[in-house]
């Protein structure tokens, strides 16, 4: 058989071989890895949900306080937002599972027998045609040596068979190439779908957060008010119930429209941090070794208890938060 | 002691109690849940990386093929993109760990002793002042009954002590409220930082994917070409090495600039799918029960082998992919 025929044959066989021994096993492995990937997604959603449920509980405590209702709202809205993001992510996960992994798994299962048959069929058919052609050619050679008068007809048969052989080889090569390309395109297009689903998720997540982060920043800055606002002296309303009982309901409503204007009860902004009740702050705790709180700060309004009756350790001093700045951190955005 | 004083006292004590018994334990729990959340993030990045490394290997196989080099590029670029997204996500994870969890953990540890001391101090000081005031008042009452000439001075002392008591109560209430509000604001502002980091991540991820998904779609559509393009007949270059050996290098380069124009070797688009080598396709396999491939499709170019020598089962038929449409799925984006 002509060497170029033989090379053509080997190249077609090599395509079937690479589908059977490389592509299909790789696709099976991909399905396995994809299922691990999915499990990791689910684990993340769960962990996020548990975490932000805890944030929500703390936010609801803050809503019960007399000082931190706006902050409580922000925390509750944050956990609400996280729930939105989680359900958007669920769409990606569903696509990955339903449109990729399941199809990939089905196709590899279907493919094994089909590719095996195609390859075997091609092999048998090739050998049969090659042998047949050989036979006719040697016959022709014999006839020509004997100057047989039928040699001319025989030469035509050989040419016809050779043309058919070439057609068969090209068709078979194209068929194998088509199958190979189909499989790679399938994989690329499926992951294009996945990438596009991620793209939409990122877009949605971004616009969801964008409005809310701005609102939260405003509200949190508005909440930086002197605690004086909440304790208006001995005979003030603070002596009533510590918080209006209907408070929770409007907050729930605000949750679903975080772009709503800051609530009316937002306290006025403070003139300057210098007016903090305990005067200027000590350096941040993070710079000091952990120790018992220091008793060093003078009172906002100095006064002297009856000297005779005051215990020796009491000289108009009281505990001051040595690491106020660790809490009063400011969110450092911008 | 006057009842409003007593109520004021209980409300201040309640604030310390809620910090000690609600806020701080909740924050500790949050740190624990946050660490689980972090672990889930890391597990997801790992799973994604393993999955897309497998995609990359398949893509590199495709680059070695004679039919699917563009598709191989797309797959390799997809896994490259995934690596970008993973490293962007790492920024979020670092913020969460370094700027939230670690600070939250440190603060709760620091807080316990300080709040305990403040509360105890307030309690002792209140009882001391209350007792002192009671003593002076009963003394005044005694003197007034006896019409004592010093009653007037004593009345002044009582008034002074009472004013000091009021000042002390208000200051203490404000101090407690400040501490409570500080803690809720700390939590809200820290999570505002986290939300903002997520916002930036989503924005970056979106713009990274946007260009690439478009390019991949173009390239994948360009790759829908007749396999004829790859097997130009028996004596064509396909009989040389199945792929140009320098092929891999330019691909690596394309990876880092996926917005580059489709490579030059992109085959011309096909006029119509009707010209597929095996003629019209059967209905998608998904509609048929799994079975051995059928042998039903006529050849693109019919030919007849020497009838005498053909095996009985061979009548110019060959295996046809019964579920071609399962592979030739089209990525259905638009």
From TrEMBL, chains A, B:
Residues 1-239 form the IMD domain. It holds the Pfam family IMD. Signal peptide: none annotated. PROSITE patterns: IMD. InterPro entries: AH/BAR_dom_sf, Baiap2l2_I-BAR_dom, I-BAR_dom, IRSp53/IRTKS/Pinkbar. Residues 220-242 are annotated as: Disordered. This is IMD domain-containing protein.
């Amino acid at each position: 058989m002509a060497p170029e025929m033989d090379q053509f044959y080997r190249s077609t066989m090599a395509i079937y071989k690479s589908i059977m021994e490389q592509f299909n096993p790789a696709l099976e492995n991909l399905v396995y890895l994809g299922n691990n990937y999915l499990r990791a997604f689910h684990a993340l959603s769960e962990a996020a949900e548990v975490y932000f449920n805890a944030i929500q509980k703390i936010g609801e405590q803050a809503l019960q306080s007399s000082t931190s209702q706006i902050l409580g709202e922000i925390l509750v809205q944050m956990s609400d937002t996280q729930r939105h993001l989680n359900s958007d992510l669920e769409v990606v996960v569903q696509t990955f599972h339903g449109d990729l992994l399941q199809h990939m798994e089905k196709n590899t299962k279907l493919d094994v027998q089909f590719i095996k048959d195609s390859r075997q069929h091609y092999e048998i058919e090739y050998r049969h045609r090659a042998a047949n052609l050989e036979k006719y050619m040697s016959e022709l050679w014999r006839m020509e040596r004997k100057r047989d008068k039928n040699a001319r007809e025989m030469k035509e048969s050989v040419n016809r068979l050779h043309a058919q052989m070439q057609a068969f080889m090209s068709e078979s090569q194209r068929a194998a190439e088509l199958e190979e390309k189909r499989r790679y395109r399938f994989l690329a297009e499926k992951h294009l779908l996945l990438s596009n689903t991620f793209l939409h998720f990122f877009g949605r997540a971004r616009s969801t957060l964008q409005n809310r982060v701005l609102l939260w920043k405003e509200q949190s800055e508005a909440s930086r008010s002197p605690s004086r606002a909440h304790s208006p002296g001995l005979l003030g309303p603070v002596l009533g119930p510590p918080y209006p009982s209907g408070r929770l309901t409007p907050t729930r409503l605000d949750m679903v429209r975080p772009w709503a204007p800051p609530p009316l009860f937002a306290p006025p902004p403070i003139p300057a941090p210098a007016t903090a009740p305990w005067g200027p702050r000590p350096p941040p705790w993070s710079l000091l070794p952990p120790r018992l709180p220091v008793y060093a700060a003078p009172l906002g309004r100095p006064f002297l208890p009856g000297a005779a009756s005051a215990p020796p350790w009491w000289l108009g001093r009281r505990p001051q938060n040595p690491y106020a700045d660790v809490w009063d951190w400011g969110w450092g955005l911008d």
